[in-house]
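Bumping with the actual sequence this time:
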Amino acid sequence: MSSEVLLVQGMSISISDGEVTELTPSPEPTWHVLDCVSREITYNGGTATENDVTTICSTAKEFRLGLQDSGTMSVTGHWKPGNAAHEEIKAAAADKLRRLIEVEFEDGSIFRALAYVSQRSWSAAVDGVVTATFNFRLTGATSEVAAT
């Protein structure tokens, strides 16, 4: 039996052109692709609030989970002013409006999230290339659709 894995090569990450307020907008937005400037994508799922529901008759601490936090995503890669996706991220950081982020994996499964750009940064070192990091704060529910 072989291992079940997803390869990084063949995946794609895109950001919508302009504000999007729904995970499945109609019509589909225009997309800006980050593939050829991205090296790593990190999704950090958030945690649900732990609400203490312990009472006098409890024999130990008791909790109920509150709303789920969708977390954050960061994309690191190459800094390339003028790249359409970079320009959209710059616009999103300035206008503070939600964009739709879509990650399509090589098997065709799709992860979608509405996101705000929380930070843009770059770094340069001798004998290297200028690198970029884009941090996104995810908002609302996310969507994960398995390949068909």
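The tokens above came from a reply further down the thread. DSSP finds one helix and nine strands in the chain.
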